[in-house]
Design brief:
Elements: H1 2-13, E1 27-36, E2 41-47, E3 52-57, E4 61-65, E5 71-75, E6 82-88, E7 93-98, E8 102-107, E9 112-118, E10 123-128, E11 134-139, E12 144-150, E13 155-163, H2 165-168, E14 180-185, E15 193-198, E16 203-207, E17 212-217, E18 231-236, E19 243-248, E20 253-257, E21 260-261, E22 267-268, E23 283-285, E24 296-303, E25 309-316, E26 322-328, E27 339-341, E28 348-357, E29 364-372, E30 377-381, H3 382-393, E31 403-405, E32 415-422, E33 469-475, E34 480-484, E35 491-496, E36 511-517, E37 522-527, E38 531-537, E39 558-564, E40 569-575, E41 580-585, E42 589-594, E43 599-605, E44 614-624, E45 627-636, E46 641-645, E47 665-674, E48 679-681, E49 698-706, E50 709-714, H4 715-719, E51 725-730, E52 735-742, E53 748-754, E54 758-763, E55 769-774, H5 789-792, E56 793-795, E57 800-805, E58 809-816, H6 826-829, H7 856-859, H8 867-877, H9 883-890, H10 898-907, H11 937-969, H12 975-981, H13 993-1037
Helix pairs in contact: 11-13
Length: 1038
Amino acid sequence: MFVRKLVEKASKTYGSNSNNSLKAEDVSAHLAFHYGIPSGSSVMAYDSIQQILAIATKDGRIKLFGRDNTQALLQSDEAAPSKFLHFLENQGILLNVNTNNNIEVWDIDAQILCHVYMVNEEITSFAIIRRSLFMYVGNCLGDVSILKFDQRQRTLLCMQYRIPFLESHGAAGFGGQVPVMHILPQPMAETRRVLIVFRDGLLSLWGIQESKALFTVGSIQLSSIPETREVVSACWVSMFGNKVAVGYSNGDLFLWSIPVISENNATVMNKKEIYAAPNIPFIKLNLGYKLEKIPINSLRWVVSDGRVSRLYVNGFSDSGAYSLQVIILNDNSESRTIKLALPLTEPCLGMEIISSFNDGNKQKKDVLALLLKSGHLCLYVDSDIESFLLKSQSKSTPSIPNHIIVRLPYYESRITAAKLYASSLPSSGPTEEDTLCLPDKFPHFLSVDKRENFVLASTRFEGFTKIKRLYITGHMDGAINFWDASFPILLLILSVKPQQGEEENASGSSVTALHFDFSSQILICGDQGGLVRILSFKKEQFSSETMFSFLQAKHGAYNIQTIKLKGAILSASINTESKHLAVGTDKGYVFVIDIKGSSILYQKQFPTEIYSGTISLQFENCNHNGYVKNVLLIATEDSSVIAVEGDTGNDLNNNGVHTKKPARCLLMQTLDISSDGVCTAHLQELTQEKHDKDNTTKHSVILLCSEKAVRLYSLNHAAQGIKKLHCKKKLSGHCCFASVVSSHSSGVGLALLFVNGKLEIRSLPDLTLLRESAVRGFTNPSMKSFQNSNGAICCSSDGEFLMVNEDQEILFFSILLQKAVNRNLEPISRIYQRGIAMPQDSYSNPVNTQKEKKKGIFGMVGMGSKSKNREENNSEVSCSYTVEDLSAIFSTANFQFTVETMNTSAKDENVELDIDDINLDDHIDKPKGRNFSALNKQNLGKKFQEFKGLLKPKSEDKLAAGKEKIEEEKSPGSVDHIKKKYGYSTANETYIPPSIAKERLNDNSRKLQETGARSSEMQDTARSFSSMAKELLRVSQK
């Protein structure tokens, strides 16, 4: 009851009904820009023509890296992990398949989600037909459907053509459906053939025009010992599509021979590729994966510049074992396998071959990009790997290729403390500087040259004269950097390194606290070892254009003073009137220092029960017993507030203000509330004028934020040790960061960030919830640094969040609705480039391809021993359909659905059934539909012919006997018989309707009996045929 009255009183006294208070319409929480690699990355894709690398995350985000160092982030409302990610190359379209089996269609140029195609069944495979708008979608039932991207409507359309499980796999011998794991259009015949790889190991080569399986292999157990082996990965290892590598869950790696089939269904292959031993892989590679039971999760085949072809083999298991090896396929020696095991420190989730440009000479390099489990990106120069393999052929011991872990290019040492300050002057709108296209002037993020990955400390950017936002960072090595954060790519302005005299403090040089005073232009820096550095900049007159003009001075325009204290420095504050500096440590000590003399005036310790650190310090003037006194407010780590005299350190009260339940303190800030309820904050960067000290018209309160609650105390009462609570709000969740924000056109508000990524914006002083948003990616377990608000999160007074995830990514998040806060984002976000022509090469990887060499055990697979055979292969596989032909094929239903068959039967139910309509002749071609194409006709042809010869005489005899009997009863040679059939009287009889009806009824009854007998015979024959087929299949599998 008491609490409710207290809340009502506070709402009445300090309500936010004033027109000058922060309102919900002033809040617009959104991600302004993202730089770096997002946390939780899991899947990659690459557009080799546009040179765009896409990285999808587990929470529905997709990061794009384009040419000229451009970056962009796509965010879907559906925060679901990504399973498959593919580009429609050079079309500006990215397709993302998530775990909810929804296919997202992203327009890269407009950077919007233009369509979502929902699939009922679980999608287990996804593939694009190169240089077309068609794609294959395989599901858990073993079926494959075809989708088409409609460029005009920007949507996906389902085509009539489909590949049913029973046709591509066959149901004989299997208890149920088998998921499709991979769909591989056959190189050189991508519009005519496609290889379907099932989980049970069956490889089915499907003819698109023929609408049937032309070849199947791989479904037989290769060992006498039963073992679980399922297909996990697969890729082509031949430009002509005559060999494929398949990785299994038990660590096996097989190379299977696939025939190249011409248009007349003739198999084109080498004599050495005659399948004398069916269902046996051509090559079994032993790389050690099977010994440790490591599943082979992904495969990538590369051949470049006329040199050896390589197969990248990546495997990792749930137990923690992992390995990534590269093997050479054009080995001259048939006695050993040349391979390289890349020395990774964690499993690899994906790999792509991308293009990288060296900033110095613009030399194009092919780079192997590896996405690691932690979300980091590892880069290897592909030519270095190839060189290692070639040197290994000569039995030499070359050095292991070097790699680069992609990091933020701003600093070599991790950020441990940071502050973000905004200019108090209102923006005059876009300027000429804001429209500069500068992405190519920044360090290349995906460069493999270490010299290009960092901004040198000696580098200073002097291009901008109007800094809108200043970002100050303290680092683990003790360095202090000043950045222009106006453009969402940090520009280094000034770097301050630890002095040589501070080497003795090197072990604890990690910066832990930063405080900058604008009126005196003094920066206070404290580190882990207790060293306080005071940087006094040359004071200059503030111009009407910028408040950061002091940073435009030359290097050396500042003085440094140092003083050593006890404990790690956690907080600092400056009294601009007395030039006194207050410093708080993690041991509960508070030191007050004279800046001019660098001497300690006094020190006090405030021990607490649970938390001992001093989180916040602030000098304020308040009314104490009728007198205005300079008070130092101290907020301890357990959310207690203590007031002492600022000049002497004498206690103003005995107890201070304490909470009932101690909780970690996050923020202490003093606020002024006018008589009409308008709230203002003592944020020094908002104005250069001194705060109004007249307390007769304003009431000052202390805003205290902890992990569990937000409280407002009366400043005057707190100075006397009286706990007068004006407002309190318990938080629903665990808060990790709090900041006061202010808009130039409205009042102040409170931003609260929770550990689950939730962001609340509340008004002051009534703490009304205005908006609730979420910071995507904040909840990822790998982002442990986000829990440490000192270095990872900072917020400016105008509501701009800057979040750093160690050395991997930076998030620029805006809270308030403002214009011209950041510089022009269009140049850095322009990913897609129009006007790039499609290359004229045929099948290729993301690197240049050439004809394979006919050397070694791998070289003879698929390549004839004579040039004649090679030419024959080229002439046959080059035959393909155009996109128009493919569209016509896919637009036609090749198999009838069950529903369509039922509808057809319903339409024809009134047609009179005639026994002559049933044709049992075996020489008539079977229409396209369900068949036994899964059976290997090459191996079982003779047995089927023998079985057919046994059945055919019997069926022909029965058919002939039936026809003779029908002809005798249906002889149409007589006119009288015709008249009698249609109910007319003959010449010898009169017209008697009852007799005619009776005769027709008897005739129909006799026909039905004969039809039933024929149906029973046909059913028996079908059963015999089915049992014989199953028996033959079992025999062939032995």
